[in-house]
Amino acid sequence: MNDLFAIATGIMFALGVFQLLRRDMIKVSMGFYILFTGINFFLLAVGVFDGNQPAYVAPKDDGQAPVYLNDAGELTGRILDEDTGEVAQPSDPLVQALILTAIVISFGSYALLLGMINILSRRFSTIDSDKMDNLKA
Amino acid sequence: MDIVLINIVPFVLALLMVFPITRQLLGRNGLTWLTSGAMAVLFFWLLIFIPQVADKNVISHTYTWNADLGLSLTWYVDGLSLMFALIVTGVGSVVFFYAGYYMDDVTQLAKFYGFLLAFAGSMLALVLAGNVFMLFIAWEGTSVMSFLLIGFKGDKDEEARTSASRALIITGGGGLALFVGLMLLGVAVNVVNGVDLFAESGFQLETILQADVKSHSWYQGFTFLILLGAFTKSAQFPFHFWLPGAMTAPSPASAYLHSATMVKAGVYLLFRLYPTLGKTNYWESWLLFIGLTTMFIGALFAIRKRDLKGLLAYSTVSKLGAIIAMLGLPDSIGLKAAAIGILAHALYKATFFLLAGTIEHATGTRNLDQLGGLRRHLPVSFYTAVLVGLSMAGFPPLLGFVAKETLLEAMLPEHGLTLLPIIVVTSASVLTVLAAFLFVWDVFVSRADQQYPHFHAPHNGIHIGPALLAVMSLLTGIFIAPLLESIVGSAIGKDIKLYLIPSNLNPLENHAFGLSLLVLFAGPALFVVRRYWLNMPWFNLPTGINLYKAFIDIIEWIGDQLLRSQNGKLRYYLAVIMGVVSVLMLIGGAQNIHGLSIDITANKAIDSVKIMTILLAIGSTAASIFLRRHLLAALSLGIAGYAIGGLFLLEPAPDVALVQFLVETLATVLIILMIARISMRQRREVMNVLWDGSDDTHFGVLRDAAIAVIIGMSVGIFALAAVDDRQARIETLEQVEQDVIDEGVILPEIVRPIAMWHLENTYKETEATDVVAAILADFRGTDTLLEISVFSLAALGVMTLLAVPKGREILIGKNVRDVMQSMAQSQEIERQQSSGNKLDTSQMQQIRTKTFPLPEKPDQYGAYGDEHSISRLSTPLTRMTATVVLPFALLISIAHVLYGGTAPGDGFTAGVVSGLAIAVWYVIFGYYETKGRLWWLRPGRLISIGLVIALGNAVLGMIFSEGFLNIMKLDVHNPPAGLHFVSTIVFDFAIYLTVFGGVTAIMEAIAHPGEEAL
């Protein structure tokens, strides 16, 4: 399954890079946002394990929590399905934490980017990047 | 240790010069006495070392700088270092004293002293350096200070700037060659000594001096590079031209850097490495050839110069050539001659430069044709000039005589040379005598009736320095031969005898003495008949400066050609960069794709749902490319975001999914608001050219698509490889675990994925059951701390970007009533102008200070807004909803913070939830009403309070717990409402405040009326 996320990462990067190269500055900002998403996909892909439960661990067996610490303090998963023998397994918490902060930060960067585009549009009275050629003095 | 102190003093003083308080406290005299006094103290301090080094002891001191890189600072003092250090401090003291009377402006003086002191420090470090790194750094330091001093008047004088950069390019370029040469030398020394290639010892002077590298196969290579460095620094042909150019420096700097010390750095280096590199055919032929050529050319150019300092500069070039040539002699007599030459030249040439400075200072010119008869005006300078002129010409009993005797003696064919060197040296010496005569005669004696309308008599103190140096030339010649013998003797490591009166006075038997007499007669004779030959039109020899100019021209031409390929449009640069990256990826990555397997089988029922969601995300992202209208594109991106949120939910990762949904909502609102701020005309313009390049072709789309596909594929393959690797590791891990179970070995902690550790220890360490929240607020707390800082910086960035409408005052962060006042004033101005009233500045000012009546209640503020501010969504129903939503949002946020450890949601989601409520307010009530009603909401303050709490919590962790951000627990029995009193709650609260503040800042920045609205 993780392979699918890896491929999705690639596709997202392709879409993002293409948007990045547009002359419409608003589309460029969208390109950045797509790249951020692509990176989140990548983080998700390299998670260590494919869990079937949220990363919540009950301190002890309360008879309900699918994942708990047994008396010896070991991580224990309840058997979910007697027929298939499927055991509860938490999803990788570390990549989730990384993605969570990444999402918030990418929002901040996105806002900054949009602010810049706003300024550019005021200064050049266009948002066509091909018409902003003041770089060449 | 003493030696380190001596080296540091000039730097400390240079630092003092930076502060204006120094010159305000000390004044001109104070500065002069402080600097020259300090240099004099250093001089006498160094004198104390003479007895020690005269016994061929070496004083060294090592200070370890960076042990891991094998870098250290080593000071190394032997006779040679000491001789140069004495020149640096001795001449330095005189020059500093002189400069106090030379510089008119005390601010300029302090700056000048600062540069000179930093130079003196670098030069001392250069001659006292005990390893090649320190030597190189000091070497470059002197080049840089020389650059600054040559360009000292560069703010007004363009020539000063050109000369300065020319000097820096030449000496700096040589410095690079030198660095490579020294590195190779160090490696070669290590090879010869049979130690590790980059061992520190090979770069220590002590080891280098004892190593035998002459037979090493790299010998010619590194020797050439080192010679290149030395030749450029010491202004040898064909690099000599920078030195005459350097005469744009103030005269004291010329005296100090460009005659006495810095230009001798190359000489010092060759002298220093003579035991290691010298006495080979390669060395001797280079040094003799370059040295003698320089000597002759310099002397020839000197006498043709009518610029006072130009004459001196070329004669310096000539003398430097002589010294270099002497170092190329096989016999140690050359070393003796070189050492004496260095000393004598430092004394008389520095004096000459100082005199030139006095003359220019007094008359305002240094053109020999406009000078003359100054004997009457500057008598002290005249006598000084006569004295040092005699020394330069080499008359007994001055030091110059001793120097010339030893020079001639060293060059005699008796030492295995051909006749050519002695002929060159003799004729160059004759020309030097002529130059000395020209200087003294043309300035002081000839045209006795020359009038100076702008004559400005200098302060008497200006004469003290040059006179002192001139007397030193005399005294050292006569009296202190023993002292000189010990200095020079220890410098070359041999006992020597200096004589003032040659033992054999028969010119036919003592050839050196004979030639010396010849020179002393031929010089004046040529001088007397100069009008018959000196001004004859000579052909101009091509000099190095032409080469240099051609070189610079070529570089500029290449630059121009490169500039043609620049079109100034950013996205083409981006395309080129990414195109190159994609080509590199194709080349480099293609070989590595093997053994990658792709496995997308849907094992579980949920997997097919995941696949569908991913497809939805990708599809709507792709739609954002094809949709022409911005609003639709933004909405389709929003759909993609929600799909990804759904994916997180399926993962299952409820915390992430929650944040993703909230942030996606906020981001979509954000982009729609942002788009609304950009005028419809501008947006139409780009919508219409979605697929068109600016050159009306569609080639660009294909190119971009190719780049995008290649990069996407490469990233995808990279991700696949990473996943594969991860999978392989997990399998290994399982294998190891199996082995452990089979054999009963304890599994090392490190082999396990860190995520496992997090899962098992979250509750034990933090009393939280939500592992993700625990990682955020505790395990990786420092990370989170930095991340909220970054987020708040981004938010503040948006605020500052949008806060300043062009040409108007800053609106954000101000009281809303002030903003409305300013708005009302602007509207008044606009109204008057549109009704044909021409307003002048004072009338405008009047309106600007006028107070307009404002509505009392915030509910009525909306009337002051414009069409951007008043929302069409403002209906009683929506207003009601928004009013109710806000307190609920705040409550939900608090709940998220308090129960972050046991349920989905944490500081981040809390901040975004509250922020969303504020966004709703801005959309429904508009800027003014929101600001008026929520006056207590100050985003900047929220951010700072949040960051302070976060930092305070972290620091408290250091005090009361085990370290920065370490968790603190409060033991409460039967906590109310299932709360856990741990410090992570405080941290989560800080995150909440920061994120809330950040989002509010962004929203306020977007919602406030922009320039067009005004």
Describe, in plain words, how this protein is organized in 3D.
The complex is a heterodimer of chains A (137) and B (1014). Chain A is built from three helices and four strands. Chain A folds into two domains: 1-48 and 92-137, Helix Hairpins (Orthogonal Bundle); 52-91, no CATH class. Chain A has 137 residues and is mostly helical. The N and C termini of chain A lie far apart (52 Å). The radius of gyration of chain A is 22 Å and the shape is elongated. Chain A has helices spanning 2-20, 25-45, 93-124, and strands at 67-69, 75-77, 79-81, 86-87. Among the domains of chain B are: 289-535, no CATH class; 570-751, Four Helix Bundle (Hemerythrin (Met), subunit A) (Up-down Bundle); 772-1007, no CATH class. In chain B, 70% of the residues lie in helices and 1% in strands. In chain B, helix 4 runs antiparallel to helix 11. Chain B contains 38 helices and two strands. Chain B has a two-stranded antiparallel ribbon with strand order 1-2. Chain B has helices at 2-18, 20-47, 50-54, 79-102, 106-128, 132-150, 158-193, 205-210, 219-233, 242-245, 251-260, 265-277, 281-304, 308-327, 332-363, 374-377, 379-393, 399-410, 419-445, 464-478, 481-492, 511-528, 544-564, 570-590, 605-626, 630-650, 654-677, 680-688, 699-743, 754-766, 771-779, 781-803, 816-834, 841-849, 876-898, 907-933, 939-960, 983-1007, and strands at 59-66, 71-77. Chain B is elongated and about 120 Å long. The longest helix of chain B has 45 residues, at 699-743. In chain B, strand 1 (59-66) and strand 2 (71-77) form a beta hairpin. Chain B is an all-alpha fold. Chain B starts with a helix and ends in a 7-residue tail after the last helix. Classes of the chains: A mainly alpha (137), B mainly alpha (1014). The interface between A and B is large, with 99 and 122 residues.
